[in-house]
Amino acid sequence: MKSAIYAFSGDPITFGHLDIIKRAAAVFDRLVVAIGVNPSKKYLFSLEERTEMARRSLLNLTNVEVKSFSGMLVDFAYENNINVIVKGVRSSNDFEYEMSLHNLGESQKLGIDTFILFAKPSLAHISSSAVKDIQKEQGLIQDYVPPYVKQCVEAKLSGQYIIGLTGEIGAGKSYVGEKLVELAKAMNLEAHNIELDHLSWQIQDDLKEEKYEVVRKQIIDTFGAEVGNADGSINRKALGEIVFADQKKLERLNEIMDTPILVRLRRELKDKKGLIFLNASLLAEAGMGQLSNCNMILLSVDEATQEQRLLDRDLDKEQIKRRLMSQYDFVHKKEQLEKEIEMNRQGKLWVMESEDYGIVNLLESIISYFQLKNK
Q1: pTM score, two decimals?
Q2: d(CA 217, CA 46)
Q3: Are residues 144 and 55 part of one domain?
Q4: Whether residues 115 and 164 fall in one domain
Q5: Same domain, residue pair 139 and 173
Q6: What are the catalytic residues?
Q7: How many structural domains are present in the chain?
Q8: CA–CA dist 93, 76 (Å, integer)
Q9: Which domain holds residue 77?
Q10: Is residue 245 part of a domain?
Q11: pLDDT one digit per residue (tens) for the chain, 375 residues
């Protein structure tokens, strides 16, 4: 059996590390991922936390095991009866550094060799340091680390615990989000409800930054002069009549709005701590579960209540029908969210139905999940 060790600090593990691990696991019959301790380094995460993040990120690789170690790596390799150390190299500086480590290991006369894998160009910019730097500025790191690791980094560096909140139109998302915040604050827990629809409205209404003026002009150019107001803002009612009657036009609007909304979301998240509920109607449809690390609340609503709420918004029955057809129904939302959790091997779905699961119980379950009472 061909065995090897891939050792690194994992503070935290990134997609760059995972790519090297997957490629090494395809070459060797057994790969030990070793999370080490360097006395000269100051770590954000404890050894136990770094090991758990690696373990959770590698559950799908059956020939990979995760261990922690201290001391010289060649000694650890020797004691585990492994004579190959895998190293990932991103640059010429990395190569020279790893060559010097190899020579130092050779000096110990344990018969340990080095196996070099070069980082893919598309991943060479990813590092544990970059992840931490981006998170400190409230950037989005879902393209750098898996959802569980993202959850750990957000909690450690920003004190944030993000939960998606979604449901069909008229399911009561705003009410539930505001109520969860109210109840959390009554328990001396900081909490916030961020409505992505409201961020979209701000962009379409009156944000003065030049880029948002460009976005509004792009919407008007795409969907026609009738969706523009005299002051250059967007007539959301007229825009809704167009996009909710045509799925492709709705998808085009979402394409235009995706990046501006993510930028505004970063602004909203900055300096907020505690529980953060991301309230979004199309969380499932847009595959946005990674924003909340696949931790999501799905609200249910009966047809009669839903219809009455939408009638109260001055929508007629034909408009209601078009709005409902433009998004997944409850069953499809649930299927999509469960699929995201399964695919990422991370997250939790809370399904809230008014008749058997109250808001207080929901909040208690969320607090228990994140172990907030012990923090």
Answers
A1: 0.90
A2: 49
A3: no
A4: no
A5: yes
A6: 17, 41, 90, 128
A7: 2
A8: 25
A9: 3-127
A10: no
A11: 799 999 999 999 999 999 999 999 999 999 999 999 888 889 999 999 999 999 999 999 999 999 999 888 989 999 999 999 999 988 878 777 777 776 665 655 678 888 999 999 999 999 999 999 999 999 999 999 999 999 999 999 999 999 999 998 888 899 999 999 999 999 999 999 999 999 999 999 989 999 999 999 999 999 999 999 999 999 999 999 999 889 899 999 999 999 999 999 999 999 999 999 999 988 888 878 899 999 999 999 888 888 888 888 888 888 878 888 878 889 999 999 999 999 999 999 999 875 445 899 999 999 999 999 755
Residues 136 and 123 reside in one and the same domain: no
Tokens of 87: 């190293």
Q: Which residues of 77-99 are buried (b: 16+ CB within 10 A; e: fewer)?
A: beeeebbbbbbbbbeeebeeebe
